[in-house]
Design brief:
Number of helices: 10
Mean pLDDT: 85
Distance between the termini: 76 Å
Order of helices and strands: HHHHHHHHHH
Helix content: over 70%
Number of strands: 0
Length: about 170
């Protein structure tokens, strides 16, 4: 059901006129009319206010209105994951450029990069909402995550194990 129909049904269940609803939302009656006729879509702030006013969930109010759902999807420029990927790539390029300009020996700073990466990775793990993440994972995503983690950890662990045994043999 489109949001305009939903608003009209909820308004009529309360026996409110368009003007009464408009007054409660502090907007014009014409806006209510346009929404109910599917000429215009309410803003997100108005959708939240309507949800509160009719005591229904946002899900009940907007589910089924593909046009509205698409409108909200296009408003968001970058998802958090896209931000993480793009900002990380840009920062990597800048860091490589700085390290190249200063003729830095990567072997010398590699342990510090590993240590910093591990510290921030652990901090990230503690900051995540695991309940939501667990709900978002499909079986395919779980399998792909396992494979990715294995492929990322094998070289890292191999390097750490070799380094550990070299240190032990040097001490002997």
């Amino acid at each position: 059901m489109k949001i305009g129909e939903q608003i009209k049904n909820q308004r009529e269940m309360k026996n409110w006129s368009q003007q009464e609803l408009a007054d409660k939302l502090h907007i014009s009656r014409q806006s209510i009319s346009k929404w109910e006729q599917d000429i215009a879509l309410p803003s997100f702030a108005n959708i939240v206010a309507i949800s509160d006013l009719f005591a229904i969930s946002l899900d009940e109010l907007i589910r089924g209105d593909e046009e509205l759902m698409n409108k909200f999807k296009t408003i968001q420029k970058f998802t958090p994951v896209e931000k993480i990927v793009w900002v990380s790539l840009i920062m990597i390029v800048l860091i490589f450029a700085v390290l190249f300009v200063f003729n830095t020996n990567f072997q010398e700073i590699m342990p510090w990069l590993h240590l910093g990466g591990m510290i921030f990775f652990i901090a990230l793990l503690f900051s995540l909402d695991w309940q939501k993440i667990n709900q978002a994972f499909s079986k395919k995503a779980v399998v792909l995550s396992i494979i990715t983690l294995i492929l990322l950890l094998i070289p890292f662990l191999h390097e750490e194990i070799i380094s550990y045994f070299q240190t032990i043999s040097e001490l002997s």
